[in-house]
Amino acid sequence: MAKLAHAQWSSRMGFVLAAAGSAVGLGNIWRFSYMVGDSGGAAFVLVYLACVALVGLPILVAEWMIGRRGQKNPINTMSDLAASHGKTRAWATIGVSGVLAAFLILSFYSVIGGWSLNYTLSSVIGTFNGQDADSIGALFSGMLGSPTTLLLWHTAFMVLVIGIVARGVTKGLESAARTMMPALVVLMLILVGYGMTSGYFGEALSFMFSPDWSALNGGVVLAAMGQAFFTLSLGMGIMMAYGSYLGEDVNLISTARTVIILDTAIALLAGLAIFPIVFANGLSAGEGPGLIFVTLPLAFGNMTGGTILGLMFFLLLTFAALTSAISLLEPVVETLEERTSMSRLVATFASGIAVWALGVAALLSFNVWSDVLLFGLNIFDLLDTFTSKILLPLTGLGAILFAAWCLERKSVEAELGLSAAGVGVWNILARFVAPAGVIAVFVAGLI
Fold first, then answer.
1. Are 277 and 128 in contact (CB under 8 A)?
2. Strand, coil or helix: what is 377?
3. Which parts pass through the membrane (predicted)?
4. Tens digit of each residue's pLDDT (9 = 90 or more) over 146-155
5. Those residues with Cβ within 8 angstroms of residue 104's Cβ, 6 or more apart along the chain or in another chain
6. Over pLDDT 70: what percentage of the chain?
7. What is the pTM of this model?
8. Smallest Cα–Cα separation from 188: which of 419, 33, 359?
């Protein structure tokens, strides 16, 4: 039982911005747009949107619904709701796996957030100016090879995250989202505007949106389904925690649609901002993380106005990293605050320091602990693989199965406010389609 009345979002808009901020992360800035260009363009977008509607939206709504009903941290919520519906409290393991996933993901996510902070400063002081490809590559390799540099920026990033989350739901999470999300969109639109003047905007449009139906196959469909699942911060305890701060007056399905539209629009805008710059400089669009930290710095360092554009881009990247990172810490803090005698402030510092410590192990895997392997993976890759391929899909699967099969059906229908036909569609999606989609992604990730 919470020691005080459970916190609430101050408004639907605050909640939407916070949820969208959680969904919009580093992956949106490069991974989604690259997947679009490499997997059939508009054909991939259509498949992705279908996967979001059939798999992502039902699970997102289910996690919010569970959180709102429980009004507690994910572990207590799952335990109490299960007991109140005559089910075993073992369902609480779904809450445990979600909170654990958020904790583990933030530990290595913060390391990458630190890279973004580092590159923001590098843009300000003109580090990339006039550098060639080898020099830019050496800068990135040098950063990864320096435990001191990685520790400094990982620590700086976690200090920002802890500082925001410690302020609470409205003053911390919501206030940060109200500031950073509009700033992120403005920066994105400025960069898209620049891309439209580069002479290569049409090439970027073609790369991302020309439908190539021949590129679609089972692997691409599974990739689209996986992206639809992971981009919405599902299976991490985040949306259950956020739902626990949600009032009864918010329509879950319409709000989910809004969050999904914002998330997808920002991901597509990111591609329209990035790829004109890449193509204008004769660079490769298929570099993965290297696109952000090697390819683009090379472009910014050798173009007119590159210092300002680079600063805006890496600020944008930092905002995206921060809005996701604070959402990852929140379910851990909420759980500690409600399951122990810790205050909000103490719970935030305790969980933040623990995340930071695991992040130190992750960053050392790039240098002094590079030979330390578990199951053939270094610490950073092990954390990534374990969370993305095991914890997240299993937690998301558990949440949708619980909402669809354990919660009292009439109360769920009343809460969703759907027509009779809508209820029928919801039952099919939540009971069969979404679980099947998650199982497919889970099995494919293990093969």
1. no
2. strand
3. 12-30, 42-67, 88-112, 150-169, 181-201, 221-247, 259-279, 345-370, 390-407, 428-446
4. 999 999 999 9
5. 358, 383, 386, 387, 391
6. 98
7. 0.94
8. 33
252-280 and 409-416 helices, crossing angle to 10° = 60
CA dihedral (384, 387, 390, 393) positive or negative: negative
Residues of the chain falling short of pLDDT 50: 1-4
Q: Using an 8 Å Cβ cutoff, are 60 and 399 in contact?
A: no
Which candidate, 406, 388, 392, 399, places its Cα nearest to that of 435? 399
Give the torsion through C-alpha atoms of 107, 108, 112, 117, to 10 deg: 20
**Cα gap 72→62, rounded to integer Å:** 15
How much is the pLDDT for 321?
94
Distance separating the N- and C-terminal Cα atoms of the chain? 42
- The per-type count for the chain, helices as H runs and strands as E runs, is 22, 0
CA separation for the pair 366, 145 (Å, rounded): 6
Q: Secondary structure of 137-187 in the HEC alphabet?
A: HHHHHHHHHCHHHHHHHHHHHHHHHHHHHCCCHHHHHHHHHHHHHHHHHHH
329-366 residues labelled b (16+ CB within 10 A) or e (exposed): bbbbbbbbbbeeebebeebbbbbbeebbebbbbbbbbb
Cα distances (angstroms) measured from residue 117 to each of 135, 156, 249:
20, 8, 38
Cα(201)–Cα(198) distance, integer angstroms? 7
Q: For residue range 345-386, list pLDDT tens digits in order.
A: 999 999 999 999 999 999 999 999 999 999 999 999 999 999
**What does the pLDDT read at residue 2?**
38
Let me know if 86 is exposed, middle or buried by CB neighbors in 10 A (0-12, 13-18, 19+).
exposed
Q: How far apart are CA 364 and CA 145, in angstroms?
A: 9
- Tokens at 384, concatenated: 């990534």
